[in-house]
Design a protein that fits this description.
Elements: E1 4-9, E2 14-21, E3 26-36, E4 39-40, H1 42-52, E5 56-61, H2 73-88, E6 92-96, H3 100-112, H4 119-139
Length: about 140
């Protein structure tokens, strides 16, 4: 049976999300959750998890171009992943997201020009890139 996987692009002001199926290895953007200094409204995330019933959560791990932790954001993304696991009891994996924002911006721009580059769109598209790259790492 194919697993449903939900991915998150963690940020201190906004957390993008995407959903994907193991069988197709593709992902679709869901929504961006507003965050207050990295803390989302957990009820909103819970609603989305209940609606989609994912088997696994993937959180993008921000690092520098050499794979090293960035000052505070890397640890905060790890903490967010731990909280997701603690609250919802689902397995959570961290996935290197080094170039996801750049790639997301480029994808969105190619589809809709500057108008497509709203913060929420970029964050959700980043979550799509993270999830599709996770699929590639698992099954590529």
């Amino acid at each position: 049976m194919s697993k449903t996987i939900m991915a998150f692009d963690f940020g201190t002001k906004s957390i993008g999300s995407a959903i994907g199926q193991e069988v197709t290895g593709t992902a679709s953007p869901l929504k961006a959750f507003k965050a207050n200094d990295g803390i989302p409204n957990w009820d909103d995330i819970e609603k989305q998890i209940k609606e989609w019933q994912p088997n696994l959560l993937v959180v993008g791990l921000p690092t520098d171009l050499h794979g090293k932790d960035l000052e505070s954001i890397t640890q905060r993304a790890r903490k967010f992943a731990k909280r997701l696991h603690g609250r919802f009891g689902l397995p959570v994996e961290l996935h290197d997201e080094r170039l996801s924002t750049t790639e997301a911006r480029s994808d969105l721009f190619n589809r809709g020009g500057y108008k497509a580059l709203s913060k929420g769109n970029v964050d959700c598209q980043s979550a799509v890139v993270i999830l599709e790259s996770w699929f590639e790492a698992q099954y590529g």
